[in-house]
Amino acid sequence: MNGNDSLSRQLNRVERGALVAGLLCAAVCAVAGWFDTTQFFRSYLVAYLFWIGLPLGCLVIVMIHHLAGGRWGFGVRRLLEAGTRTLLLMAVLFVPLLFGLQSLYVWARPEAVAASEMLRHKQPYLNVPFFIVRAAIYFAVWLGLAWRLDRAAADQDRAPSLDVTRRLTALGGGGLVAYGLTMSFAAFDWAMSLEPEWFSTVYGVLLMTGQVLGGFALVIIVAAALAKQKPLADAVSAQQFHDLGNFMFTFVIFWAYISFAQYLIIWAGNLPEENSWYLRRFEGGWSGVGIFLMVFHFFAPFFLLLSRDIKRRPGRLAAVAVGVLAVCVVDLFWIVKPAFDRSRFSVHWMDVVALLGIGGLWVAAFVGQLKGRSLVPVHDARVEEEFQWT
After folding, report:
1. How high is the pLDDT of residue 269?
2. Looking at per-residue confidence, does 149 or 234 come out higher?
3. HEC states along the chain?
4. 275-307 per-position pLDDT tens digit
């Protein structure tokens, strides 16, 4: 048995296992949701926001690579592209949320809007038909970007072409702008509007930073797992892992900066309509989660990623990345869940099952996309330049 057959069998096992686990957990969640609809949609929203972040994070990173170049992204480009091709699945998995808008969002309830002057003032934007139209626009932009990047990459694989390289560079620049705009509004719609009386201009940036951080953590984990497989073994060296670790380190710092800046501005303003968001997240046991995030979303990865030795050892760096990815889940839970359970900290069993259900389906789709293509790009006009000093 050659190395390719062995890798194919391993990927098939992971794909089947993830698919079975995802379908089973999704079925359990759906049955439970029949008896507790409100909890189902709350749990589903948190899980969905985490898993949609991974393909979007991959989309951002691959566009950064096309725009800026550099050998750091060459070895993991196929992994990133596989992640972007799961966006169609995430578009399908968004549909169940449309049936739970009244369970999730107070602005979707006519009686609540009628009783609140603030909600009536925001109704031209926060209404169900416009919400659905905006969501369709977001997915059209993201899927369009992923499709055009994937088609250009396929054209490049067939034959070397500087025109294709230039097209990918242009897509990277324009695509990052399009992503920034659409994801900012998606963050406002899907998460911030859970508490429509509160607002923050950097809220979208905070969620986008978490997505890119999660994307880097994902590709580090997968690259470390496949680091001994040909041809990836020839394209991803200790130096590439070191570079990816530096990127993850950068976004850990940026996440902390944005989080602290938002908190500092709201604390300095001391306005009831603004500080209420933080008060809910530092009462009833939620303060422990906030302290956990400060320690394990910033301080722990910050000091670990200072180590050159850790960043150059795939296994150790992957262990840090697993921790970062897990804390990203906790971060989204802390951001979203207090909008529903304001009195006390709680984790419902459906929160875990929904996370595993969507996660199993996404992992199966991601692994399926890895198969059938070479793990490294071919005919990239920048490859020789990127590796000439290796």
Report:
1. 87
2. 149
3. CCHHHHHHHHHHHHHHHHHHHHHHHHHHHHHHHHHCHHHHHHHHHHHHHHHHHHHHHHHHHHHHHHHHCCCCCCCCHHHHHHHHCCHHHHHHHHHHHHCCHHHHCHHHCHHHHHHCHHHHHHCCCCCHHHHHHHHHHHHHHHHHHHHHHHHHHHHHHHCCCHHHHHHHHHHHHHHHHHHHHHHHHHHHHHCHHHCCCCCCCCHHHHHHHHHHHHHHHHHHHHHHHCCCCCCHHHHCCHHHHHHHHHHHHHHHHHHHHHHHHHHHHHHHHCCHHHHHHHHHCCCCCHHHHHHHHHHHHHHHHHHHCCCHHHHCCHHHHHHHHHHHHHHHHHHHHHHHHHHCCCCCCCCCHHHHHHHHHHHHHHHHHHHHHHCCCCCCCCCCCCHHHHHCCC
4. 889 988 988 789 999 999 999 999 999 999 999
- Residue length of the chain: 390
Question: What tens digit of pLDDT does each residue of 108-117 get?
Answer: 999 999 999 9
Q: Tens digits of per-residue pLDDT, 167-188?
A: 899 999 999 999 999 999 999 9
The amino acid sitting at 255 is: W
